Amino acid sequence: MKKAFKFFCVFVFLIFSPFVVQAKSNPYPKMEESLFGGEIINCTWYAWQQAKERMGVELPLWYYVETWYSKAEKAGYSVGKEPKVDSLMIWDYGEGFGGHVSYVIGVNGDSVTYIEGGSPMTEDGINQDTMTLGMMKEFLVGFIYLDKAPVKKEETTTAEKETSKKEESKPKEEPKSTNNYLSDLKISSGEIEFNKDTLEYSMEVSNEINEITITAVAEDKKATINGNETYNLQDGENKITISVKAENGDIKNYIININRKEKVEEVNIEEDKITSVEKDKENKKDINKVVIISTIIVFCLILFIGIIILITRIIKNKKNKKIN
Length: 324
Description:
The protein is α+β, with helices and mostly antiparallel strands. The protein has six helices and 15 strands.
């Protein structure tokens, strides 16, 4: 009768144990007897420790390791046949041989690198190895993924309930605004076609404009603007940035590229006119001199020719008189 009662208790425990999500301390024996004598670290104890230390998952007491896969699935853990880092790899060597569990630390294609306890190949039973899925498909049951482990909901204490009530009674804070747009953007000289979605503008001003004032208005009153001021302009390109900071801290920048034309030297038209008139006068004087000189020369030539003709005639008349 006592044996039947014990069997019934164990049976009930095994039926309901898959629904236990967490154990607060390692429930498995740390050491086990090695096949070659002596004691080594148990594979279930080692796997539980790795899950706790690496992923913060406290596995329940699932007893026989070859049943871990099915019990984990019933308990809400994600399971599958694909190897993933930070998963438990479950083995089943068949009836009479039991099972084994390893912790996956690396996956490269179909090669799986794992660490494990319970290895008779090392002195303490802890071992690291790499195998392909093809090499272990005969004994591989599957993988328990620890990154999607269910979390047990702890019972709240009276103090926690009171704190929760106080928190609920507090007025809820509205989410901070993310609006960092401008509603308007003006400049003291010239105009730009403003659109809140256009973040960069270009314009050109004359050299006479040596400064410009920016007036920007935020779309959201809770936003702040940096850049509403007067800027001195240099010849050539000038880049002005207006920053709009939303209530939640997000920043949007509007950029204005202003090209200030270079200074052109002024030409004194009056002076040029006077200079041109004076030059014309001088040229006319020179021309007059040339005309006068040319006239004198021509007159002298005509006079010289006339004298020669006169002398020739006189000589000719004298010769004619002698002949007669």
